[in-house]
């Protein structure tokens, strides 16, 4: 296999790519060689410059220095249109699909067959079926995208670039949203594609899947290529990790149990009905969190985790037998009462639910705590005390910012998240509801947030942890519940479970044989 | 390139200048097309404006406009479009005029009594679209516009049937507010300071009311918890909910507050302008509509709305004598409209650039060594 790979023609060569942004050098001499017909992985920490590099490759921006050579010819892309013209297509991590359009409509959008007066639906659907069959990417062309699962939506995204004639496909962290079984399917499709002569480049920081599926690996650190691995069988995960981080990897694992017998939060019979009937979004959920305990909820996204968080915060209507926070009945309390009562909240979408981006940091530190000290007395906001508290958060939680008066939108995702975590933790919550607390942030910030949660847990905090990162879930949780179609279907002991076994529960299959 | 250089000088000072230039060009073209001389028109306007009397009149009228602008801006701040300020102050003014003229109270109580009626009626009328929105999801733009028409009919009927004076007047109007119910003029204060406006020029006491409204608006917006939640709700309703804001309550409180301030608009003519002191045919009725333009032009900012109100009043004052020299006075509307439109566009362009610049600056300052794409 090694021999055939190296003999293949070079599909893409990126030579000494330099891309500067004011104040930052995102790419500082990156070299990548991708052979035609291979699956090529580009790995590196968040912020290492992978996304910047891929944007260069599909024409979203132009490099300041260096050459982009596609199939032997140097290219100067002015826009993604130029890149697609030579057969390079991009599949984004965040799907760019219209939910209320059907699959085929989404795929042809912007590149419709027929004339402006006559949209050739039949041709489009036939082409899609052909593509789907050939590469194992079958999706019902007439289904509405909003009804599809995450894995299916991703197929639509891949079909979209294939439909536009891409022969070199870039995938930005394609497995971030998939369960292990879907990951297998994805790479089986990519293998079909590459066997037919196409080339796939994927960005990842999951070393196991890189080692399993990639034909070649390029490691990027701090904007530079630090390693080229033409044959992944020659390296192991440890070696790759060292190349990526340049030092030892942080681990989410907690050391010893701090679980007490004091009940911090008790939920009984929580049910959320779907609008307009149908299967309940949450069906009779009951669980208990003790002081010093992290209770993890595992599940494929869309199985009720979002609704669980919203119901805990009182953001959606639920019929509940009982929710007790340290013995206080908060079943019918408003969101404000729950938060004032000691329910901390790290939302899954920090920019949508956790921040007001144009507002300065100090006002973002007030958000959610505007009714109580030190931020105010319920009627007025105490600016001086709020600013002082924000400065404390910035210092203690290592939020990198020139001042607390700059708008939150100037911070990187990791720093925004550290601000939110700092805000919630400095108000001494009794129970923390943390939804994907380290999603999309760099390894350094991730490790810092893990440490904060671990320390607070040791100090007696109860945590409800929802995460798609199975290692994070297994590493941090004291108890794991698996959520499937709105129900808690299994309770597992995280100390003797692997991501593969957990993944099997998450698909509703139960314990693997 | 030009925009970049100008953007650095300061968008807040510059945008109105650019907008003003555009407005003058547009209205000059309109004048030329209709066969009039722009230089003559603008020359006349300038001569009219360049006087103490004009200054006082602009302040008087600007104060009315300012309160209208703030009333609308309160709603705008959370993305709530209260188009109904007209109806709210019309009803508020009618009730205040009727009950205010009937009451026999000392001045210290009489003025607050009348103002309280206007504010309460304005808030109550605004509560209708608020309740419709939170209970039935009715869009407030539609309901407030419709309620404006209801208010026209309602005020006409109330005035004719119950509230009109039985005195000798031929037209329907309320009784005149007695002196104890009026807001005293500021002339005595100005004279005490050693100035003299000349005969017949009155600086209305309502200017002080407008200033207080502005200060109150600022404090509410930037110092109170309600104001904080109002601003959060306007920019990111989802985050507001997660932070504990009850969106329905917020909508209801905000539209009623907007209506309460709208109720104050009518107090300018009713209590502070010797031309009126009563509610009748002549009572100015579309100040609330101007409030929409002024909130937009002033970007909902307490100071911005004040500047916008002064510009608005100045254009109105300046174009008044144009009809005497045969130029249609409507050129003022063209000036206002083109000024508003270009100001909104220029502000938007500038603020986007400023935001991009802020991101780059912060990235450069926060992480000189860190490598990675700025988010």
User: In the CATH classification, which architecture of the largest domain in chain A applies?
Assistant: 3-Layer(aba) Sandwich
Number of E strands of chain B: 0
Q: How large is the count of helical segments of chain B?
A: 16
Instruction: Give the name of the CATH superfamily of the largest domain in chain A.
Output: P-loop containing nucleotide triphosphate hydrolases
The total tally of domains of chain B equals 2
Structural class of chain A: alpha/beta
- CATH architecture heading of the largest domain in chain B: Orthogonal Bundle
Pair with the biggest interface: A-B, 59 and 36 residues
Strand/helix succession of chain B: HHHHHHHHHHHHHHHH
What is the level 1 CATH name of the largest domain in chain B? Mainly Alpha
Task: Explain what the structure shows.
The complex is a heterodimer of chains A (513) and B (375). In chain A, 33% of the residues lie in helices and 24% in strands. Chain A contains 18 helices and 22 strands. Chain A has helices at residues 2-7, 50-57, 80-85, 103-108, 121-135, 150-163, 180-195, 207-213, 237-245, 305-313, 335-340, 350-354, 361-366, 383-396, 413-425, 443-458, 470-476, 499-506; strands at 10-21, 24-35, 39-43, 65-70, 73-75, 88-91, 114-115, 118-119, 168-172, 199-204, 216-221, 224-229, 263-272, 282-290, 294-298, 322-325, 328-329, 343-346, 431-435, 462-466, 479-484, 487-492. A 6-stranded mixed sheet of chain A has the order 6-9-10-3-11-12, with helices on both faces. In chain A, helix 14 (383-396) crosses helix 15 (413-425) and helix 15 (413-425) packs parallel to helix 16 (443-458). The two termini of chain A are 32 Å apart. The model of chain A is unreliable at 1-6 (pLDDT under 50). The two termini of chain B are 25 Å apart. With 375 residues, chain B is an all-alpha fold. Chain B has helices spanning 2-9, 11-33, 38-49, 52-76, 85-102, 107-136, 140-163, 187-192, 206-223, 225-235, 237-242, 247-265, 267-272, 287-297, 302-319, 331-366. Residues 367-375 of chain B have low confidence and may be disordered. In chain B, 47% of the residues are buried. In chain B, helix 4 (52-76) packs parallel to helix 9, helix 9 packs across helix 10 (225-235) and helix 14 crosses helix 15. Chain B folds into 2 domains: 1-36 and 328-375; 60-325, ABC transporter involved in vitamin B12 uptake, BtuC. At the A-B interface, strand 2, helix 2, helix 11 and helix 12 of A face helix 10, helix 11 and helix 16 of B.
């Amino acid at each position: 296999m090694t021999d055939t790979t190296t003999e293949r023609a070079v599909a893409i060569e990126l030579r000494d790519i330099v891309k500067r942004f004011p104040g930052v050098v995102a790419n500082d001499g990156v070299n990548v060689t991708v052979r035609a017909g291979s699956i090529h992985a580009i790995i590196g920490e968040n912020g290492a410059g992978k996304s910047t590099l891929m944007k260069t490759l599909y024409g979203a921006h132009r490099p300041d220095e260096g050459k982009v050579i596609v199939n032997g010819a140097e290219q100067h892309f002015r826009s993604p249109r130029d890149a697609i013209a030579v057969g390079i297509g991009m599949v984004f991590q965040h799907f760019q699909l219209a939910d209320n359009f059907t699959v085929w409509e989404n795929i042809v959008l912007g590149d419709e067959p027929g004339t402006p007066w006559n949209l050739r639906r039949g041709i489009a659907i036939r082409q899609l079926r052909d593509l789907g069959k050939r590469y194992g990417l079958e999706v019902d062309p007439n289904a509405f995208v909003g009804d599809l699962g995450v894995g299916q939506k991703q197929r639509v995204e891949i079909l979209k670039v294939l439909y536009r004639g891409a022969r070199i496909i870039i995938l930005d962290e394609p497995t971030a949203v998939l369960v292990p079984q879907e990951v297998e399917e994805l790479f089986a499709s990519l293998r079909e594609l590459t066997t037919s002569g196409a080339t796939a480049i994927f960005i990842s920081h999951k070393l196991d899947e890189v080692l399993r599926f990639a034909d070649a690996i390029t490691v990027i650190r701090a904007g530079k290529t630090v390693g080229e691995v033409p044959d992944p069988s020659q390296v192991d995960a440890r070696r790759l990790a060292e190349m990526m981080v340049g030092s030892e990897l942080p681990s989410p694992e907690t050391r010893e149990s701090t679980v007490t017998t004091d009940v911090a939060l008790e939920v009984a019979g929580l049910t959320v009905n779907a609008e307009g009937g149908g299967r309940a979004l949450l069906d009779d959920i009951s669980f208990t969190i003790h002081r010093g305990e992290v209770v993890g909820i595992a599940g494929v996204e869309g199985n009720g985790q979002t609704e669980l968080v919203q119901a805990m915060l009182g953001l959606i209507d639920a019929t509940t037998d009982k929710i007790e926070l340290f013995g206080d009945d908060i079943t019918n309390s408003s969101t404000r009462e729950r938060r004032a009562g000691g329910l901390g909240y790290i939302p899954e979408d920090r920019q949508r639910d956790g921040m007001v981006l144009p507002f300065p940091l100090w006002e973002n530190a007030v958000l959610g705590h505007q009714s109580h000290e030190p931020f105010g007395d319920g009627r007025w906001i105490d600016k001086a005390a709020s600013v002082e508290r924000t400065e404390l958060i910035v210092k203690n939680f290592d939020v990198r910012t020139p001042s607390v008066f700059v708008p939150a939108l100037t911070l990187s995702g990791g720093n925004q998240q550290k601000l939110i975590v700092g805000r919630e933790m400095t108000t001494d919550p009794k129970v923390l509801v943390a939804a994907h607390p380290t999603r999309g942030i760099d390894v350094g910030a991730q490790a810092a947030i893990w440490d904060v949660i671990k320390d607070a847990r040791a100090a007696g905090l109860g945590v409800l942890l929802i995460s798609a990162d199975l290692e994070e879930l297994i590493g941090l949780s004291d108890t794991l519940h698996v959520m499937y179609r709105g129900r808690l279907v299994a309770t597992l002991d995280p100390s003797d479970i692997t991501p593969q076994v957990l993944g099997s529960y998450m698909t509703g299959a139960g314990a693997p044989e | 390139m030009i925009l970049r250089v100008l953007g650095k000088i300061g968008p807040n000072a510059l945008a109105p200048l650019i907008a003003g230039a555009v407005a003058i060009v547009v209205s000059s073209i309109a004048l030329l097309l209709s066969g009039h001389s722009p230089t003559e028109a603008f020359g006349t306007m300038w001569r009219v404006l360049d006087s103490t009397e004009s200054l006082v009149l602009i302040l008087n009228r600007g104060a009315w406009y300012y309160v209208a602008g703030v009333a609308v801006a309160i709603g705008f701040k959370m993305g709530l479009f209260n188009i109904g300020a007209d109806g709210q102050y019309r009803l508020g003014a009618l009730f205040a005029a009727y009950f205010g003229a009937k009451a026999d109270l000392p001045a210290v109580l009489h003025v607050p009594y009348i103002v309280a009626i206007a504010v309460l009626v304005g808030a109550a009328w605004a509560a209708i679209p608020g309740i419709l929105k939170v209970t039935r999801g009715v869009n407030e733009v539609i309901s407030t516009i419709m309620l404006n028409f209801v208010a026209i009919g309602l005020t006409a009927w109330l005035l004719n049937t119950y509230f009109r004076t039985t005195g000798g007047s031929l037209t329907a109007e309320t009784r005149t507010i007695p002196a104890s119910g009026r807001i005293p003029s500021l002339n005595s204060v100005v004279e005490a300071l050693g100035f003299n406006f000349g005969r017949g020029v009155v600086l209305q006491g309502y200017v002080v009311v407008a200033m207080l409204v502005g200060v109150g608006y600022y404090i509410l917006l930037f110092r109170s918890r309600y104001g904080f939640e109002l601003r959060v709700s306007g920019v990111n309703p989802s985050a507001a909910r997660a932070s504990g804001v009850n969106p329905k309550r917020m909508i209801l409180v905000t539209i009623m507050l907007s209506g309460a301030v709208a109720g104050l608009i009518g107090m300018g003519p009713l209590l502070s302008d010797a031309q009126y002191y009563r509610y009748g045919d002549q009572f100015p009725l579309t100040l609330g509509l101007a409030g929409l333009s002024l909130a937009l032009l002033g970007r909902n900012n307490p100071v911005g709305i004040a500047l916008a109100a002064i510009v608005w009043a100045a254009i109105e004052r300046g174009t008044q004598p144009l009809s005497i020299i045969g130029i249609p006075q409507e050129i003022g509307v063209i000036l206002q409209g083109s000024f508003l439109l270009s100001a909104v566009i220029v502000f938007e362009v500038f603020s986007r650039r400023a935001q991009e610049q802020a991101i780059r600056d912060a990235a450069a300052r926060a992480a000189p060594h860190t490598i990675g794409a700025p988010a």
